[in-house]
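User: Last request for today: this protein with zinc ion, please.
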Amino acid sequence: MAVFLDQAADLCDRRNLRFTDLRRQVLELVCKAEQPVGAYQLLDELRDAGRSAAPPTVYRALDFLLEQGLVHRLATNNTYMACAHPQHAHAAVFLVCSQCGHTQEVHTPGVIRELERQAKPFDFAIQHAAVEVTGVCRACRSK
Ligand SMILES: [Zn+2]
Ligand SMILES: [Zn+2]
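Assistant: Here's the final one, the structure of the complex with zinc ion:
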């Protein structure tokens, strides 16, 4: 995780953006969570860590991290997850267990290429793409 935070700091440096303490702290919390986290859970954790932040501040930090591709947002339940590979543009593909909520990001570079191919005839420039696939994970199936 320290490596990931350093990479994030580098990436902000290269883009001339400020990786503020709050942005770092929010990213660290999102990374630490084993499951996608919501903004209010992050607020609670920040408070536990002795830092009180107002909800809009946390949303702004999350927006920043989203824009930089460091986290992804899951639309289904409005939660955030650290990106496993922020260095390059990609479509985020998530496998979401509909029973326990376990979420795994899978790396499928082919997906963004295919979406770009499909968007081309419409002259549409893709900014973000996320695909949420629901199903049942192995642990839940074997119960
Ligand atoms: Zn990703
Ligand atoms: Zn499950």
